[in-house]
Amino acid sequence: MQKTGLVLEGGAKRGIYTAGVLDVFMENNIRFDAVVGVSAGAIHGCSYVSKQRGRGIRYNLKYNNNYKFMSIRSWLLSGNIVDTQFAYHDLPERLDIYDNETFIKSDTQFYVTVSDVVSGNPEYILCKDMFADIDYLRASASMPFVSQIVEVNNKKYLDGGITDSIPLHACRKLGFTKNVVIATRPQGYRKKAFKHQWLAKLIYGKYPNFINAMINRHKMYNQEIEQMEKEAEAGNIVLIRPSRFINISKMETNPDIIQDMYNLGRQDALSILDRIKSFLSCNV
Fold first, then answer.
1. Considering only CA atoms, which of 162, 180, 171 is closest in space to residue 279?
2. Which of 179, 141, 162 is closest to 213 using CA atoms?
């Protein structure tokens, strides 16, 4: 029997699309042996593992206008575009309580993709306790230039998407060979070359491997997209991605646009729900 994996791309506020897909999965009892998430994909993926349907869209809409949730003001005041205390402690521990007990008891393994700033390589961290491992989640979602480097166990990390935006290959290497991928860009999107090499060298001059990862990210990303599309066409994976373009920014504050992106995730998941069930049930 092949082990099943769910691969979740990031994308900041675009990740609310993933939350919509995952809510449909929960409503239809679609489960996986593992989740490998990146940045916003990991943020919403952990609520999927804890079986908290609707949590992602609920707290996004409720706290969307709170500057500590994500804003330039937060960055100017704290050095992080997302306030650490608010987003990774106040929110899951008090304001919209995260069900860590269900997460711990889950049969689904949960991996968070982070970028090692020193080596310039991705790492895939198996999280067994979301509260104890919260800094890995924070690191995965810490975008360069607007986030401080996150230090965990004497290692320096930032946004997992810099070194592995869609970790399908990594998921397979971890032993999960029957995979569903949720991407957050529509068909036809290709990432353009990085234009701010001078700024990267100014800020991350101590970490040349990380600078190289940023410079080459578009090549890595586009190769992953092309490989993913070939795999989907061959029937080796099921790919879910936005069926139409919604102009949503990384720091979107318009609640209607956020809701539309979430609704699109739900619609797209429902449209291929039978196909997903069939794909996962043919587990040989």
1. 180
2. 162
